[in-house]
């Protein structure tokens, strides 16, 4: 019997020869070429309880090297969490917090109008908010809990992105980036993660459309790997693979929002991949349409008869 390999998920999804589970020099946010010091960055998915540790940790590399970072979170049922306008919880020029119920279009528009008025037009949006949803076979879930997963994971990303682009415009004067967090389950059919997998697949497709319809904005889906969070605790079979540092997707997000990454726009990126190797395969990625989703098979064969 072969020995269990805790890194088999990383190796099985490797696009580069060198892969990582921990931060590495090329994505260190203190590198001059990765500086975010003149950008307004909006990140959704920061909760009061910090229930999803990956959200807090994955943005840490950005928060210390950005001029203005806005943490955006959903309103909870606790009325003490309600708020209008921006709430400064650290001194000016440091991270700020804004509460909004993102699935509501009006809330998204209002939030981004206030962001622009207070800080200027944002240049980076990181759609980090999301839920795992019911961890059970699809039809064992109630209609409400199944559908709510798509409301949070898909509708909220749509409304936030729509409000963001309304402020930036279709042809921003400065480099503008949208990064939406996706996951490995969007690539296959993992057990008991039906609505989560389905919603992530929808985000992948939505991002491809963003790239097509807004070519002057860089749009990516970023897979953070398997990070030990409350979500992975709910899925026992994922725990042996939860070896990825939450700082890894944070650094990769910084890299994606820096420099010319147009060749990756509309595509799926995993945090474990070596960014130097990704850059080296720029031409191949474009010519062969790599890192995109499509139906597998051989199509358009010769000598086809159609009745």
From TrEMBL:
Gene3D superfamilies: NAD(P)-binding Rossmann-like Domain. Keywords: Oxidoreductase. Signal peptide: none annotated. InterPro entries: NAD(P)-bd_dom_sf, SDR_fam. GO terms for molecular function: oxidoreductase activity. It comes from the Eukaryota. Belongs to the short-chain dehydrogenases/reductases (SDR) family. This is Carbonyl reductase 2.
């Amino acid at each position: 019997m072969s020995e269990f390999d805790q890194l088999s998920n990383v190796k099985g999804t490797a696009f580069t020869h060198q892969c990582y589970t921990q931060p590495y020099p090329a994505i260190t946010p203190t590198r001059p070429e990765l500086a975010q010091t003149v950008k307004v960055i909006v990140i959704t998915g920061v909760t009061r309880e910090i229930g999803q540790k990956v959200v807090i940790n994955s943005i840490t590399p950005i928060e210390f090297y950005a001029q203005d970072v806005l943490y955006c979170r959903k309103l909870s049922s606790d009325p003490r969490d309600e708020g209008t306008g921006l709430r400064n919880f650290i001194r000016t020029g440091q991270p700020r917090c804004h509460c909004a119920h993102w699935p509501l279009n009006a809330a998204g528009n209002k939030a981004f109008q206030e962001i622009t008025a207070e800080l200027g037009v944002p240049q980076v949006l990181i759609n980090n908010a999301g839920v795992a949803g019911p961890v059970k076979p699809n039809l064992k879930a109630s209609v409400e809990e199944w559908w709510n997963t798509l409301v949070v994971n898909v509708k909220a990303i749509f409304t936030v992105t729509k409000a963001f682009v309304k402020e930036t415009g279709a042809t921003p004067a400065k480099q503008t980036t949208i990064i939406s967090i996706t996951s490995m389950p969007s690539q296959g059919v993992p057990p008991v993660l039906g609505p989560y997998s389905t919603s992530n697949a929808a985000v992948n497709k939505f991002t491809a459309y963003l790239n097509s319809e807004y070519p002057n904005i860089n749009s990516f889906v970023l897979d953070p790997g398997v990070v030990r969070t409350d979500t992975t605790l709910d899925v026992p079979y994922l725990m042996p693979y939860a070896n990825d540092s939450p700082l890894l997707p944070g650094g990769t997000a910084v890299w994606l929002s820096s420099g010319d990454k147009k060749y990756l726009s509309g595509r799926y990126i995993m945090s474990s991949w070596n960014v130097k190797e990704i850059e080296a395969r720029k031409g191949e990625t474009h010519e062969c349409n790599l890192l995109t989703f499509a139906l597998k098979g051989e199509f358009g064969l010769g000598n086809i008869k159609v009745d």
